[in-house]
Amino acid sequence: MSTILGAEIVFSRFMPSGMIPAALAQTAESFIIEGKHPGLLVLNDRPINAETPPHLLNDAVTPADKLFVRNNGIPPTNVNIENWTLTIGGESVKDAKIYTLADLKSKFKHHTYQLTLECGGNGRSEFNPPAKGNQWTTGAVGCPKWTGVRLKDVLLDCGIKDDAIYIGYHGADAHLSGDPSKAAISRGVPMNKALEDESLIAWAMNGEDLPIMNGFPLRLVFGGWPASTGGKWLKGIDIRNKVHDGTKMTGTAYRVPCEAVAPGSKVANEDMCIIENMPVKSLITFPKSGALHTLGEKFAVNGHAWAGDKAVVGMQISIDFGQTWLDIPVSKAVNRNAWQHWQTKVEFPKAGYYEVWAKATDSDGIAQPMILPGWNPKGYLNNACHRIAVKVV
């Protein structure tokens, strides 16, 4: 950081970890996150959170430097992978064990899947009344290739008691307060999700070590579920005989009203349900919004679509604000929980301003809404149609 500032940070030992120096915060220069593309938009510096503009998500496989960053605490520093261990415990484990990273790599079969990760709050900026928290727009999503071992292989190696219903993770990230007795986040998933083939304990992204901000050296990955269920800097997993009650598993965190409510309603904690499978959604990744196009030429447009644990079976676009829709083909997923791709060309009838809207439909026949879906106090699960602006001349 001193190199960027051009001067030594005197008293740097007192500077809170993760904080952007005021000298940088007061300039137009972008805050650079180590290992990440400079085009990411930093939403918060403590903890560090950053999203990826749609046009930087055009790759079929999301590059590591373009995957969004969602932290709840302060990532560990000076990680020593030789000493890194993973403890499997909890009330419902038959034989608690501790594995080194080398143990995991040598004892279990390796698997690679392309899995979609999306923050439960992606799209929060559109909610009204506004919800507190980072105002994510569209870029808290990505679909890299993850390599590791199946979570179920490790859990079965320890033995699972008949009363097990959930797993909960524990990471090495520190609470923002610095209090070591507090966890930054400790979430989990039901056993049926934990035991799926695609649920991984991963150490690599796109064939390389995980980026520091995405959980190096070890993390959980549950494709199609809120990214918060995939614990980063993974140190422990408990097999629970009850719904995991770790930090951000209770109250209103990562929950939505069990029944529809009016915008602005206050909802009791007991009436909030845990988010599991993410809803159907799509994104236009080419061209960038604000495109200038020549009348008479065909306009090429493409993007991705995903649907949590389901598949995307239909894709449509509109250039007349949803009055009519054009059916277009969508590719098959390379594996379950991976996003799918679409592309097409359209013709505009005359010069002027247009918006291209994209709408996906999942295998249950549920399509994206054109406007903000049901309101919720925390601003989760906005899967409204994505749109870009085009000026035809």
UniProtKB/TrEMBL annotation:
Residues 274-392 form the Moybdenum cofactor oxidoreductase dimerisation domain. Keywords: Metal-binding, Molybdenum, Oxidoreductase. Residues 76-246 form the Oxidoreductase molybdopterin-binding domain. Gene3D superfamilies: 2.60.40.650, Oxidoreductase, molybdopterin-binding domain (3.90.420.10). The keyword Cytoplasm does not apply. Its cofactor is Mo-molybdopterin. The keyword Oxidoreductase applies. Pfam families: Mo-co_dimer (PF03404), Oxidored_molyb (PF00174). PANTHER family: SULFITE OXIDASE, MITOCHONDRIAL, SULFITE REDUCTASE. This is Sulfite oxidase. It comes from Thalassotalea fonticola.
